[in-house]
Write a structure and sequence with these properties.
57% of the residues lie in helices and 6% in strands. It is mainly α. A hairpin with a 5-residue loop joins strand 1 and strand 2.
């Protein structure tokens, strides 16, 4: 006597999830677009104001906000900061798709990395890629804080001097803001893609959940059972090594880095600006 058996379900091909993976991807570029438009606006304003400016203008400011270098007036000398920032935005806009390709993420309809990649990993990596894109835009907006006050001070006429606290405040926002934003922004986008994966019927296995728990959103390992301080990066986070914050050595390394970058360096800038005011 024979029994009919139901055929084993066939896994959906990777392209079946493309619509869910692509939906809303463009919104992750908005911060970078805003940074580009801000600097483009400064360049246009500088070009319009150029005829009414004196023959020489300040081009560099000390920590206390006072100009310490001057050059002949030109669009390049007037808008050097915004021009560099806009160029950096363009480089980032070209680099991000290349990073996606290296991570095996689709960059356009029909363009994929490895054949039939794990569906859950595709959503997880997509969240990381989107978070990184948002983070780059936010960092570029913060960096633009260094160009806005100096450019506007020249456009406004006068000697171009700024209040003593402007430069250290801007530098503190750039350094501290980058450190504080990195993990939460990437984690936010990963949560969005986890929810979208669930809506699409894609859920992680117990092994994948356990693997996800071993890593922070910023790509640092957090495995206390691994004594290594430096470990290979997680797939989707580039090549090279990263820190295992689950180890004591990794925790000390991160604390030193955060202390130097987010506390010591801004403190030095504040002290220098206050002393020279």
């Amino acid at each position: 006597m024979t029994h009919d058996t139901a055929p084993s379900p066939t896994p959906a091909p990777s392209y079946a999830y493309d619509d869910a993976l692509r939906a809303g991807r463009g919104r992750s570029w908005l911060p970078l677009l805003a940074a580009a438009l801000l600097n483009l606006g400064l360049i246009v304003a500088a070009w319009l104001a150029l005829p009414g400016l004196p023959d020489r203008i300040p081009t560099h400011w000390g920590a206390d906000g006072r100009p310490d270098a001057w050059e002949d007036t030109s669009l390049g000398s007037l808008a050097l900061g915004p021009l560099i920032a806009l160029g950096t935005c363009a480089v980032m806009a070209l680099t991000i798709p290349l990073v996606r390709m290296g991570a095996g993420q689709p960059t356009a309809a029909g363009a994929h990395g490895p054949a039939e990649p794990n569906p859950w990993r595709r959503f997880q990596t997509e969240g990381t890629a989107r978070g990184t894109t948002v983070l780059v835009g936010v960092v570029m907006l913060l960096v633009s804080l260094l160009t806005v006050p100096t450019t506007l001070s020249v456009l406004g006429g006068g000697d171009g001097a700024l209040p003593w606290w402007v430069m250290p405040l801007c530098a503190t926002l750039v350094l501290g803001g980058t450190l504080l934003a990195m993990g939460p922004i990437i984690a936010w986008q990963q949560r969005v893609m986890r929810a979208r994966a669930a809506e699409t019927g894609v859920r992680p296995t117990a092994e994948e959940e356990a693997e996800d728990a071993r890593w922070t959103a910023a790509g640092l390992m957090k495995d206390p059972e691994d004594a290594r301080v430096m470990v290979p990066k997680r797939p989707g986070y580039g090549v090279g090594t990263t820190v295992n914050v689950g180890s004591r050595g990794g925790q000390a390394l991160v604390l030193v880095f955060v202390g130097l970058t987010g506390v010591a360096l801004p403190a030095v800038l504040w002290i220098a600006a206050f002393s020279a005011r």
